[in-house]
Amino acid sequence: MTRSREATERAQPDLLHRPLRMLEALAGMQQPASLLAVASAVGLSKASAYRVLRSLQDEGYVDHVGRRGYRIGSRSIALASMVGPRPALRQRARPVLTRLAAAAQATATLHLRSGEHRVLVLGVEQNSEPLRHIVHVGERAPLTFGCSGRAILAHLPAHDAAKMITGHTRGRTRAALERELEAIRVNGYALSFSENHSHLNGIGVALLDPDDGYPLGSIAVAGPDDRLTDDALRRLAPPLTSACSGLAPHLATLLGPNSSARLDALDVTIQDFMETAAD
Predict the structure, then answer these.
(1) In CATH, what class is 84-255?
(2) Could you say which of 2.130.10.10, 1.10.10.10, 3.30.390.50, 2.30.29.30 is the CATH number of the domain covering 3-79?
(3) Which residues partner with 109 through β-bridges?
(4) I need a labelling partner for 249 at 20 to 30 A (CA). Which of 62, 131, 192, 239 fits?
């Protein structure tokens, strides 16, 4: 194999990864987002980011809205509707979240993992207090941050978790975070106090694949810190754990690696997208 061919093959993965990283970063930003903001989020120069965004724009995955910047395009939304939480999952999860939210008079949310982050995909609010956790579907945060993320992180394979801890410690010492993750595995739940949202506390439990214990996501309950104190959160652990144990097998059937769920095709061709990104 020639050196030029070897260099080309080494560069190929990056050509494929850049558009995907760009889409994931843009989806987690307030939109429209400027070219400079998107470039900074993925660690590229403005020129390189523009070339990737232009390719995504030509294929309908990103929209350019003039001086205001870029936003997720209709083709990305169509793709998300196919590979994201499908109606069957929402039908299973919403009653579970509704019961938890009603019992705690708080907000219950379902989160799925997206790389080194967790993404809020479904939520139910059951109180009208001014200070409450308002659901923002698509909200994204590192797995090291907040109870919903750390509940997932604690159950990931050690080598995957170590990489994320190194990249997203947010001022924590690695040893302290590792001790907390061990406590989460022992107790079965994670707690957070005014981390993702000021004056809001929460408890999160992982949704584990019953076959291999892999974390598919998490459910969290959050509310005002004057009501959901440390003791109040811990009292929510048994019903939350029970709810996760009941939902996890259904989630694994729909989203797990051995899922047999049928996917209906949309006008989205991933192979075309990957080939375009590599050109």
Answers:
(1) alpha beta
(2) 1.10.10.10
(3) 123, 220
(4) 192
